[in-house]
Amino acid sequence: MKNVICLLSLCVMMAGCANMQNTTTPSTTIDHLATAGSLNCKSNELCPNVVVEWDKQQKDKLHLDVALTSTYQYYDINGLTFFVDGKSFSYTPAGKTEQKYINRLIPKRSSNSFSLPSAFLLELRNAKNVELAIATDKGSIKRSVYTPTEQSMLYQNFAHLISELSNKSAK
Known about the structure:
Blueprint: H1 2-18, E1 34-38, E2 49-54, E3 61-70, E4 77-84, E5 87-91, E6 98-101, E7 108-117, H2 120-124, E8 130-136, E9 139-147, E10 150-151, H3 153-170
Antiparallel strand pairs: 1-2, 2-3, 3-7, 4-5, 4-8, 6-7, 8-9, 9-10
């Protein structure tokens, strides 16, 4: 009986902690807006994660960090191509691929950074289909970013940046 009461108490405390609200005040500046998003991937596919933010040195550019997390191998990320309604937009990395050991569950993380002109956001504005191909030493990893029936988190983050860009232009 004691074990049941302890277990119930622990569950109530965990539920209470999970429901606590974050009381920190969000930043109102858009100079350092960073968004991360995954692509549309199947459960058995390697799913890249992409962080997008305004470049800190050049405000008219976007900074993309692309990460591939694998249990089995590291990847050398050496290119990035967006396919937007049949048009391709290719970019080269800013430097060498960084490879890190994270932990036992997800041991191998490969990441690289890219710089894109902010005008790329205008290409996405009325797009019908968007795909991203990441060129690696192990071949190309191509995943869907947007279709009329499926929006990835990355596309939703780009859409947010597009609205921020429109708001900046309107001022």
